[in-house]
Amino acid sequence: MIAAQDLHTEFQFPQEAESQLSSDTDLEDPDGKNARTAKGMAAKKGKKALGERTKGGGAGRVAGAGWVNGHHQENGMENMTLFEVVKMGKSATQSVVDDWIEAYKHDRDIALLDLINFFIQCSGCKGAVSGEMFRNMQNSEIIRKMTEEFDEDSGDYPLTLSGPQWKKFRISFCDFIAVLVRQCQYSIIYDEYMMDTVISLLTGLSDSQVRAFRHTSTLAAMKLMTALVNVALNLSINMDNTQRQYEAERNKVIAKRANDRLELLLQKRKELQENQDEIENMMNAIFKGVFVHRYRDAIAEIRAICIEEIGMWMKLYSDAFLNDSYLKYVGWTMHDKQGEVRLKCLTALQGLYYSRELSPRLELFTSRFKDRIVSMTLDKEYDVAVQAIKLLTLVLQSSDEVLTAEDCESVYHLVYSAHRPIAVSAGEFLFKKLFSHRGPDEDGLPRRGRQSLNGSLIKTTVFFFLESELHEHGAYMVDSLWECASELLKDWETMISLLLDEPMPGEEALTDRQETALVEIMLCAIRQACECHPPVGRGTGKRVLTAKEKKTQLDDRTRVTEMFAVALPLLLAKYCVDIDKVTNLLQIPKYFDLDIYTTGRLEKHLDALLRQIWEVVDKHTDTEVLEACSTTYHYLCNEEFTIFNRVDIARSQLLDELVDKFNRLLEDFLQEGEEPDEDDAYQVLSTLKKISAFHNAHDLSKWDLFTSNYRLLNTGLQNGDMPEQIVIHAMQCTHYIILWHLAKVSDGSSIKGDMVTLRKQMRAFCLMCQRYINSINTAVKEQAFTILCDLLLIFSHQIMSSGREHLESLVYMPDSSLQAELLNFILDQVFIDQDDDSNSTGKNQLPTSPALFVNISCLFSQYYNDYGDIIKETMSKTRQIDKIQCAKTLILSLQNLFNEMLSELGFNFDRSSSAFCGIKELARRFSLTFGLDQLKTREAIAMLHKDGIEFAFKEPSPQGEGSPPLNLAFLDILSEFSSKLIRQDKRTVHMYLERFMTFQMALQREDCWLPLISYRNSLQAGGDDDTMSVISGISSRGSTIRSKKSKPATASKRKLSEEENSCSSSDAVWMNREQNVQTPVMMHSPHLTSTVLRDPKKMRPEDSYTFTMPAEQHPIQAAIDYNTQVTWMLTQRQQAEARQQQERVSMHYAKMRNHMQQAIRRSSGLMEDDEEPIVEDVMMSSEDRLEDINEGMDFDTMDIDLPASKNRRERTELKPDYFDPSSIMDDSVSIFHFLKYLYIYINDNSEHHLLSIQSDKIASCTNASLKSVF
Prior knowledge:
By secondary structure, the protein is mainly alpha-helical. Helix content is 59%, strand content 0%.
C-alpha cells in the first residue's frame, strides 16, 4: 500500500464545529464531485453551546429532527442511544445508519458525540462523554475519565457476554460499522472531520490497559479498515474505468474527439485519485496505529481479530495487500501460543490458496513458511491440525511440486489418527495426492471389473496400506477415506474380481500379502457401509442416521448380501487353508440380510457356504479361525429367519461328529496301561479346541461334556504328564459348561435337581482349578487363575440380585487357603522383576486377580511404572462402588506396611530411613488418587483419618508411661491425606484426635513427638478460622477502600445486617478468644455449633454445620484434674505461638502486596515488548483477605474488585457414626469387601460369550447385597 503520513493519535477535537453541512454534501454523489466541499472550512459556533444542546451527554437533539439519542423517537417510546438500538436489533442497520447520517448533516458535532458514546458504551463503560469533555479534553484525558466509570464489580463487557442476544450484538456491531462507511463513502468520510475523529478515538482506546476498551476498539478499527478496503477497491475500479474511457476518447481522431468529455474524465480521475490518497491515509493510520500493536496483544481474542481481518484485506484487495509486507504478519503469528490465533492464520491462508488467481503470488511465502504449516498438522489443538491439513491440500491442488515426499508422508500417517476430523482431512489429502490424477490412457477403461480404473486405484490403496505397516488398523484407513472415496471402497465387484479372476496377459498378479490386505480392506469397507459409524476408538458413539443415510445403508446391505452370497463360498474354497484370509472372510456373513437367501432364491449358495464352513472346521485347529466359524453359525442360526432349520441341521451334524470323535479319542487316550503317543494327544487337542470354540457361542449341554472334561483334568492331576494345551482347553470347555448351565438355571428353564447338579459341578471344578494353581507349568497356572477369578465373581453374593434369590445355594465364597494361594500367585507371577517383553502377561493377570488388594496396593510404589495405571484404575472403580470401604482398605495397606517395618527395624527406627519414606510416598500416591473434588470423597477421607488415628494410639509405648505410643509415627504418614479434608472436617478430625491425647502429650516437643505435632498442624491449617473467613468474606467487600473514588452503598453490595452489626463486637471477642486461646486438648470437645448470629440466607451450608462427637473415650486416655495454673501456662504458650504466626503472616502479606504493586507498575508499556498485562485476566481466589490486595495500589487505569465466587460448592454434613468406635469394621471385612470389587475386572484375552451376555446382571450388585456377604 502507498505510504502516507500518519494521523495523530492525540487528535484535538475542534472547539467550534459547523452545525449543519452544506446542501451539496449529498450521499448520492457517485462521482465524488462534492466530496471536498467541507474541507478547510472554518467551523462556526451555533446559537447555543454544545453542552446546552446535549442534555445528559449527547442525549438531546434539536426539536425538528425527530432524532433522540441516536434513534428516532417512535410512538412516545423512551429515548434510546445508538448502543441500545444496535443491541436490541429491532431496526434494520441500514435505517439506523441513514438516521445518523441525517443527524450528522444537521449537526455533525452532536451526531459525532453520539457515535463516540456508542463506542464507549459498546465497551461496557457506564459513563458518557459530555459536550464539555468533547470540546476541551484530549483523547487520552477522555479515555482516562471513562476508565474511572467502569463497573468494578464485573469484568464482563458486551463482546465477552454469553447468550444469543450478545452474539447477535457482535454481528450487529460489525454490520453497523460496515454500513456506516458504505453509506458515507461518497462524501462524509472525506470531510476531514468524522473519520479523523473516529480513527483517533479508536487508536487511543486500542492502546488502553483496560481490556474492554482495547478489545472493542480493536474490533471496531479492524472492521472499519475492512470497510475502507472495500471503498478503496471501488475507487480503484472506478479509476481504471475512467482511465480506459479517457484513453479511448483521446485515441479518437480529432474530428470525433470531445474535448469537454476529456476534461470531465480528467477531472474525475483527479478527484478519484485524491479520494484514493485520503483512503490510503486512513488505512495507513489504522494499520500502523492499531494493527501493528494489537496483532501481538496479550489477549488471544484481539490477536485473532487482527489476523482474521488482514486475511480479508489480502483477499479483497490483493493488489494492495497481497505482498510480503503483510503476509509476514500471518506467517509470524502461526507460531502463536494460543490455538485460536493459529487457527485464524490457517483459515486466512485457506482463502488465499483456494483462489487460482492468488495462489501463484504466494510462492515466496510458501517456501518460507511451508515447514511450519507441515509441522502444524501435529498441533496439540485438533482444530488447528485439521485446518493445517486442509491448507496443505489446497497447496497440493495449486502445485504438485511444492510439497516434497517427506512433507506428504508426514500427512499420510494421520489417516490412522484416533481423532476422526484429523483422519478425514488426512484421507482427503491422500485421495487428492494418489487418486485424483488420471492419465490420458485411463479415460477409455471400463467402470467396473479388474481392468477398470477402480481396479488400479484399489491396488494403489492396497500398496499404501502395506507400506504404512499398520495392518491392524485397516478400519481406520477405510473410515478416513470414506467421505471422499466411498464409491471406490464400495466397488466390491472389482475387489472380488481381483481376488478370483486370473490376471490378464502382461498384468502383474497380486501377491499373497497383497491379497490378504485386500481381503481386510474389503471387510472393513463392508462393515463401514452396513454399520454407518466409525470404528471403535474413533468417535463418540453411534449417531442417529438421517432418512437418506438409512436408505443408503439398506441399499448397501442388500448389495453386500446379493454379491457375497454367491462369491463368499468361492472365496472360502480358494483360500481355505489361509488363516488370515479365512478369518476375515468368515466375518462377512454377519452383515448379510438373511431374508435375501429366501427372497432371492439363493438357498443353494447357502448350502455351499455351510459346506465350506464345515471344511474350514475340519482343516483348521487355530482358535481364531474356529471362533470365527462358531460366530458365523451363531448368526445364521436365527429363529426369526426361514433358513434356521437348514442351518441348525448342519450345525447339529457338525457337533455330533465332533463330540463322538472326542469321546472315542478320549477313551483311547486315557486307557490304562498304555502311554499316549503324540499323535493321539494332537487328535484329542484339536477336537477339544473345536468343541471349546463352539461351546463359547452355542449351548452344548445336551451332549453332557462335563464328565469327560472333568475326567481328563483329574487324570492330569494324578499322572502329572498331561500336555499343557489339553489341560488349558479342558478347563476352558468346563468353564463354558458351567456358565451355560447357570444361564439355564437363572432363566428358570431347568428341571428340578439341576440346581444341585450345578452346585456340585461348580464346587468340584473350583477345587480342581485351585489344585492346578500349584502346577509347575506356568500357562496352566495362569489359565486356572483366570477361570477361578471368573467363577468367584459370577458365583459371589451378587448372583442373588435382581430377584434371583432362588440362586442363594450357588453362592461360593473363597476360604482362607484359596485366598492365600491367589495372593501367592500374584506375588510370584506379577510383582517380580521382569523385562518389558513379559510385562504384558502380568498386566493381563493383574486386573482379573481375585487376590487381596490390600497386599497388592502395598506394592503400588515399587511397581508403579509397570502396573500403576492398572492399580489406579482399579482403585477408581472400587471407589465408585463404595468409597468408605476403599478408603479403609488403603489405610489398612499402609498399616500392614508399617507393621512390617516395625518388625524389621524395631520401634526405635529412623523416620528418614528408606522404608519409612517409601511408605510416606505410597501414602502420597494414594492421596492423589482421590482427585480434586473434596466433597465427593469427604466421607471416605474422614473414615481414613479415623482409622489412622485409632491405629496410631492403639498400642502403648514399650518403654512405659511418658513415651510416645508404639505406632505414633504413623501420624506422619497419615498427614499426607490432610490436604484432602475440607476445613470443616479438619476441625472435626482434630477434635477426635484430642480424645486420644493426654495433657502431657500436648506439652511434649521432643523429636519422638514430631509426628503428632506435624499431624496436628496439618489439621489446624485453615481449620480453625472457618467462621472468621466467612465473616471477613462478607464484610471485606463492603469495607474495601477505593483508590479512585468511593461509591454509595447499594442493595447489591454485600453488607452485614443490623442484627449482625449489633453483635459484631461480641462475635469478634468470641472469635479472637477462640483463635488465640485454643481449647485444651485434654478436655471433652464441645458440640461444633456456631455462636455467630447471621442471616440464614447469607450463611453457607458448611457454616451451620453441627456435629456431635461420640462420648466414648479411648482406653489409654487418662482422666486428669486440671488446675488453673496449668491451664494458664498452656494458654500463654498458645497465645505466644499465635502472635508469632500472625507476625509471619503479616510480613508475608506485606511482601506479596509490594511485589504485586511493582509488577503492575512495570506493566505500563503494554504489549510493546510482548509483555503480558498484569491487570488483564486476573484470576483471584475467593479466600479471605485476598480481596484487600488492591487496597492502596496506584493503578493508572482502574481498580479491579472481583465479586465473591458464586460457584462455591455446598458442603454436606458427615454422618455422626463415622467417628463412633462401634462403626469400626473388622479388617477381614474390609479385605473381603475389596476382594469383591476386584473381581469386576475380567481378563481382556478371554472373551467369554456368556459373560458378555450376563454382563449387565453381574454389574448390578448393590452395596446392600455386598454387605450382607460379610
